[in-house]
Structures are given as structure tokens and as C-alpha cells.
Amino acid sequence: MGVETSAMPNDESVAERIAQLREQLQHHAHQYYTLDAPQIPDTEYDRLFQALEALEEAHPELRTADSPTQRVLGQVLDGFTPVRHAVPMLSIRTETDTEATGALAFDARVRRELRLTDADPPVEYGAELKFDGLAINLRYEQGLLVQATTRGDGEVGEDVTQNIRTIRQIPHRLKGVKAEVLEVRGEVYMRRDDFDKLNERQRDQGGKTFVNPRNAAAGAVRQLDPNITVQRPLSFFAYGLGDVQGWNVPPTHSAMLDALQAMGLPVSDERLVAQGADGPAGLIGFHQAIGAKRDQLPFDIDGIVYKVNRRDLQDRLGFVSREPRWAVAHKYPAQEQLTQVEAIDIQVGRTGKLTPVARLKPVFVGGVTVTNATLHNLFEMRRKRVRVGDTVIVRRAGDVIPEVVSVVSAVPRASYVLNFRMPRHCPICQSTVEREPGEMNHRCSGGLFCAAQRKQALLHFAQRRAVEVEGLGEKLVDQLVDGGLVRTLPELYKMGVAKLAALDRMADKSAQNIVSALEKSKQTTLPRFLFGLGIRHVGEATAKDLAKHFGKMGHKDDENGGGVMHASVEQLLAVKDVGPIVAQSIRTFFDQAHNCEVVEQLRAAGVTWPEHEPSAEADAASLPMFGKTFVLTGTLPTLGREEAKALIEAQGGKVAGSVSKKTTYVVAGAEAGSKLDKAQELGLTIVDQEGLLALLNIEPGSLQDGSA
Ligand code: IVH
């Protein structure tokens, strides 16, 4: 056939490339549609798709019926009943030109098809949001919801009625309509706040997180167990019709949506009946107005849908292949893009949480240039297998912090080695970094000493339930800290009226009031003061218990003088309701010299509280197992877990949930798991049931009687 030049690939390599593209597209379509676990961003998928389309265009002889370009992808999952749609569920043409010209091109096409001239008036359109979820067909018979199906391949979908019934927004009975058949089509989606909450919950429980609301929604709808669907908050918007029998369909799209709304179906209010493409009342105006507030919408959209409003005109325009000529989706810039991780840094939040942040090669995503993205915590990083140097998908939707959703790698990473280390000391204040057993997050233990936590610490100290400084609210704290007036708690008491009055928008009178309030706050109580220090896990109740138990705060340089400040973990464990985590947290706090220093400086500034000698309830200290921490693992031959715990506690011991250096004894029974491994690793003393009873001085025989 033709002449071969070096620039023109030969047919063999084209065929190879086509085969390769088809394979890739099939793989990614399966990941996306069937498994709800995409590995590449949509834009990347579109790019591959377009590359294949172009090659097939140039080589029609290589086109095959099973090419991804020739069919709608998405298969029926095993487990759902396939349902043939009474009226096929079509897709719409996408206008990828995200500029105004995209809308102009559509309007021009419609006018041409309708044979309109420049002299004819503008075409009327219904403009609405393109929701980013999954299409669902709701079949109502005599006004009752009888079946809900997914789109599937457009001809045959899946019966997901049970799952859809869990969505509260979807009426089971329509208001005022008894039509024989009324099929309503719309989008099931997840709101961003619901999505964030869901992912947070999953993250806390160490479960799988979802890459975006659309995938979370799709996964929830196609859950084989409706009990899981009901825990995944879904929403719905109607946008069209399927099969209709016995109902007079209104003559325009907008009137049809009004009618659906009146029946009790959710229809978005963000819609417009537009006249033509140009001008403030046209499609372009709507596209721009929604684009400007896209971030503030409570859910994701990926564009606007324009539909010719009049049904008679829709009918005249008809369809081309599987898409109506009367509708188009006008896209917005994508919210997910590929980029590289150049470094991973640590950010310290207001609560002391250390968040790993990926420094990215700048990328334009969701309408802005993104250079940082959160990685949440070390466990998320491990789960996503992120490393410095990786190519990743970043997502920025809404006004939220951009996030790394996944790593793109051709070969799955079998063994993953982090090339990042959580620092042992806070990058802001050098205090030790801690992670409690069972916790996902690393935290700075600096508390009120840490600049990152400074504002929060001041507000916490000044609140009504703590020492109470009336008038010291968020705005003032911002001013004080940002202006460099106050860096530590004691410095609060060093500001004079003059300095305060010099602040923006501060009258002499208010400055005087703050100074008086500060003066008043100096007379406080030990529980209020302890609570005010902001020690992690020490709430009001614990502060009261501590104050009652120890009676006094203690002094920095008087270790033998006692008080909360110098209490050992064992002594702290003897306090009512104080467990190992709280005890450790208090100890860690006062182990940092700078925290004790703050206490002394507050005293020096005149903060005082009444003290007393330790109360007598601390008898626990005299019990034989006082200060010993036990961990139970596996099944003991005769003792139940609760029984064993009760025996240990009766003698003053504590039972903890996880093994650490602080554990005194590990009691192991049959099928003991990772706790036993850990205990061996740490070289702890491990005993069996017999050994436990020996420790507690209990005759094994003496137990049987009690259990009857
Ligand atoms: S109308 C015949 N309107 O976009 C026209 N679709 O490819 C059928 N979508 O699968 C679709 N928002 O899930 C329509 N306001 C809207 C939409 C919308 C989102 C989805 C729908 C469909 C895809 C179109």
C-alpha cells in the first residue's frame, strides 16, 4: 500500500499500540465501573481514550466491534439481578472546551440542525448542574417506588432497589401522581461533608477510604449488603424521565422538573431557563456563575448540562449514535490531576496533630495551582504506599485542602518501604512527638509551649470552665498572638492597659476590662487551673479527680514535695478513672521542663489556688499489685477475661489493652496473637493462668466454687 516514511509508524506498530491502548482502557474501565477503584484520574483515561479514537479514525480497518470506543463500558456485577431498561439510559456528549466557546459551539450546532438563521430568536435552554455521582432509574408504578436500577451498559442495568430505598431523600410514594408508570432518572451522589465524615470514620477504624465522593457513592449503591449502604450517607437529584405511561409529560424540560419537584422528588434549585448562549441570561452566564461558586456547593459537579428546553424541538433534533443532539455537558477544569511528590514535610496543627504534607510539582487542579497536598497521617501514607518521587493523583474539590488520593504505578508495589520518617521531635517546638496505642495520629506533646498550638492553648486556658478571662475571645487572641504581644500563658498577665489599648479597634475602656478580667482570673481553683493547662486527655472531670487525690500542684524544683506535677505513672493510675493512657499523658506533659516552667511563671504572675494534703482515698497504693500493669491476650483455660480483670483490679493492678514497655506482665492463653509477639519482642514477663494465680496468691482450687 502506501509509502512508508520513518515518521509514519508502520501498520504493525499501530496495531500494537491500538491493542495496548485497548488493554489499558479495559483494565481502567473495570477498575472504575466494576470495582469503584480507579487507578488513574478521569483526564488520563480520557487522554488514552482519545488516543485510541484518533488511531482508529486514521486506521478504520483496525477498528473492531469489541473496542472500548464502540461500546458503553460497565458490566453487571455478580450478585445483582440484571434488568433491561424499558427506555435505554443514554449518555450525553461532552464539551471538553471549558471556556465560553464550548457553549457557543453547542448553541451554533443546535441552531444549524434546527435550520435557524441569525434573524430567528435565541433558542431556549434548560441549564442545570452535571452532578458527579451515578445515574439511577427510579420506576414508580401507581405512584409507588417499585424498582431502582443502575445504568449498567445503558441497555441493561442492575437492580439496586433495596439499596436505593435506604436513601431518605427518595420518596417511596409520589405526591399527587398515580400514573401507571413513571420512571424518574437522576443522580445518586454523596455530599462532600458526608464524604469527609465517612472517610474520617474509615480512617479512624483503619478501614478503606474512598478516593472521591463519586466512588464512595457508587460503591455504596452497589453494596450487596443494604446494611452497609444505610451507613453511607447518599443524596439524590432528579434530572429526567425514562418510561412514562399514563402521565402527561409537560411541554418543556424545566416544567417537567418543576412537576417532579412538586411530586416530592429532590430537584436542584441551581438551574436556569436560558435564552441562547450569549448575554447574562444565556448559557455562558450560567456556566460562569456556577463556576465561580463551584467550590461553595456542598457536592461535586464536573460541569453544566444544557438541554434544549422544548420537547417538540428535542424530538426534532433526535439522536446521533447513543447521544441526544439536544443536550451537552459543558465541563469545568478537572478536580484530579497527575503530578509528582517532590518532598514530604510535617505540619503541626492547632491541636498538636502532626500531618505529613506532600510538596508537589505545581499542578493546575480544581481551578487553582496546587503545590501541597495532605497525606493525613503515617498510616494513610503506608496504605496508599506513597513515597517521595512518586507520581500521584491529587484531588482538590471544594474549598478543601488538596489531597493525594493514590499512587500511579504500572506495577503494583509488592514490598513497600517508606522513604520518610515521622520526626521524634516537634518541628515547631522540639517537644517529643507521641502516638498513643491504637491512635492513628502523631502529636506534639508541647501543648501550651508549642507555637503552633499557642492560640488554642490561650483560648483553652481563658475559657469559662478553666480560669475564665472574660472578654478574651478568638479575635483578641488572634491579635495578641499575631502581633507578637503574647507567646506564652504567663505573658498574658504581663500586658498592661496601654499595650492592649494600642491594639486595633480596642477602646481604652475595653482594654481596662480585659486587664480587670485577667486580674480576677488569678484567684482560681486547682481543678480549673489543671484543666486550663490543656494536658491531653485531662478534661474537667479528670482535673477534679486529680486535684482531690493529690491536693496540690507541686513545685518544679521540689520533687519530694509531691503534687500532681511529680506523680509517677503508678501513682497517677491510683486516681479514680485514670487509666494508662491518661496517666502517661500527664507524665509526658510534666516531663517537659518547659511545661513545669509555665506553671511556675503563672504562680509568679500571681495566679493562686487553695491546696490541701493528699486525701486518704489513696489506699490502693497499699495493695499488692498497685502500680502493676497487666495485658491479657488469648483464651485462658478456665478464667474469663472479665473474671481475670476483676481479680487483678481487686489487688490494685491495672489491665491495659495493649502491650508497651510500661506493661509489667502479659498473661497469655491459647491462641494469643500479636500482643504475645510484641511482649516477646520487648522481653516482658509472660505468664499463663497458673502463673497469674500464683502472682495473685490465689489457690487454683478456690476459684471453681464461685463460678457455679
Ligand atoms: S441527562 C439523555 N442531566 O451524566 C440525557 N445527566 O453522560 C441523559 N448527569 O450518566 C442524561 N447530571 O449520570 C443528565 N443534569 C444532568 C446530569 C446528568 C449528571 C450524568 C448522568 C449520565 C451522564 C451523562
Structural features:
disordered N terminus, alpha+beta, 708 residues, OB fold (Dihydrolipoamide Acetyltransferase, E2P), D-amino Acid Aminotransferase, Chain A, domain 1, single chain, binds 2-(butylsulfanyl)adenosine, Helix Hairpins, seven-stranded antiparallel beta sheet
Number of domains: 5
* Percentage of residues in DSSP E strands: 15-25%
Residue windows where pLDDT falls under 50 for at least 5 positions: 1-8
- What are the distinct ligands in this entry? 2-(butylsulfanyl)adenosine
Mean pLDDT: 89
Q: What's the count of strands?
A: 24
End-to-end CA span: 95 Å
CATH class of the largest domain: Alpha Beta
Helical/strand content category: alpha+beta
Question: What is the count of helical runs?
Answer: 25
Describe the fold and architecture:
- The chain has 708 residues and is α+β, with helices and mostly antiparallel strands.
- The chain has five domains: 11-70, Helix Hairpins; 93-331, DNA ligase/mRNA capping enzyme (D-amino Acid Aminotransferase, Chain A, domain 1, 2-Layer Sandwich), CATH 3.30.470; 336-415, Nucleic acid-binding proteins (OB fold (Dihydrolipoamide Acetyltransferase, E2P), Beta Barrel); 437-615, Orthogonal Bundle (DNA polymerase, domain 1); 618-702, BRCT domain (Rossmann fold, 3-Layer(aba) Sandwich).
- The chain contains 25 helices and 24 strands.
- Strands 14, 15, 16, 17, 18, 19 and 20 form a seven-stranded antiparallel β-sheet that branches. The protein has a five-stranded mixed β-sheet with strand order 2-13-10-3-9.
- Strand 4 (134-141) and strand 5 (144-150) form a beta hairpin.
- The longest helix is centred in the N-terminal third of the chain and has 24 residues, at 11-34.
- The N and C termini lie far apart (95 Å).
- The relative contact order is 0.06.
- The protein binds 2-(butylsulfanyl)adenosine.
- 2-(butylsulfanyl)adenosine is lined by residues 90-92, 128, 130-131, 135, 151, 187, 239-240, 305, 324, 327.
